[in-house]
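Issue 218. Parser rejects a valid record. Input:
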Amino acid sequence: MNRIKLDLTNALYPFLNKEAGIEEDEFTGFKNKAFKTLKRIKEERAQGKLAFMDLPCESTEEIENTASKVLQNGFENLVVLGIGGSSLGTRALKEALIHPHWNLLSGKKRSGHPRVFVVENVDPYSFFSVLEVIDIKKTLFNVVSKSGKTAETVSQFLIVKELLKKAVGNSWKRHFVITTDPSSGPLRKLAKEENIASLSVPPGVGGRFSVLSPVGLFPAVVMGIDIKRLLNGAKGIDAYCSSESIEENIALALSAFYFLTYRKEKNITVLMPYSDRLIGFGLWWRQLWAESLGKRKNQHGCEGLTPVVAVGATDQHSQLQLYLDGPDDKTVTFIEVEDYEREIEIPNTPEYEEFSYLGGNKLDELIRAELSATRTVLTKSGKPNITLSISRISPETIGALMFLYEVVTVIMGYLLDINPFDQPAVEEGKKITRKILEGREESKTLKGLTIECFLE
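Output the parser choked on:
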């Protein structure tokens, strides 16, 4: 049975001191604001204004048919070209739900599914390195851009297109699937003119809320992930996000924690899963949280919770010191995995007395003990922390976590009286980049603070 459980205990008074812990009267005061927000969400959803919330119920037939058709061409590699919301969801699904060393497995062990590369940045070294290790004649490229004009993704597409023309001639078109706006944008126009296979990002679904659309689902199908199970997980958690009782509504309860601690000047949100398989999920959440909630409200004020991704137990050895003794401006959300699906026993070594406490235990027992210890020391130090426990990492729990945090992000945006769906500051940077490339604006460098060092 797949299950998600939220434990807010270590954020509450008297488990924390009065200054740090959330008191009962704070929850009472929060309820009126929360219920108004919940009502707004229900109304906007009914009006079709929150299209991402309906994605779990959309048909996946076109996605599956497109995947089936292109895989008949015998492609050995899938390369996803996208950035931000067009790639991070796919990366999260890949890291959580297929083998961590997938590309090193034989074709038989991959059940015939292709190797997968998610290429985000336009760092020329890393991009060229991917092209070096694939046979471009046996590669399918999924080009993902909601607007159809993302500079990084379009640049990658143009480079690959020319390489394919040289390698396979007029057959280059069958090596692409374009995922973009259903009716507008340069990539949609190109797909129509060149008769290239394509999928649509549903209207009203922004990039960072699009993982459960063709943006994430198409590459998931190609990887062999059961997307019906993924969507069932999202539908399952959706049923727990509509109650007007904070005690029953997991999205409201999470939002209460983040909002009330933010009002106590805890403006850094640390997400710390105790599993390497959830690092990609953390990076996906980081964009969702940062772009949605970091906003200027007017000339004199702004809102924002800064997301930080850590992973246990690794970052106990790199970040925990800061969380305990550094500025008191953070909350920590642990993600606990109850079943790691692997058991590796640590051998007894009586000849090494100092290691005797480890012998006979298993690695999953060790990582759970480290999580428990970290929770305890944070709580003793008065640092608000909560735990999301998942029964195991599965398509259902990953789909549920993604949908849950999308809903929580919208609730937080409305509670903070900001628009969680735009990103005006990012758009300004895109405009300046284009002007620089067109030669209409010089790249400005601050004068007088340049230090140049020559190394032999």
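Fixed in the parser; the record now loads. Residues 52 and 205 are 5 Å apart (CA to CA).
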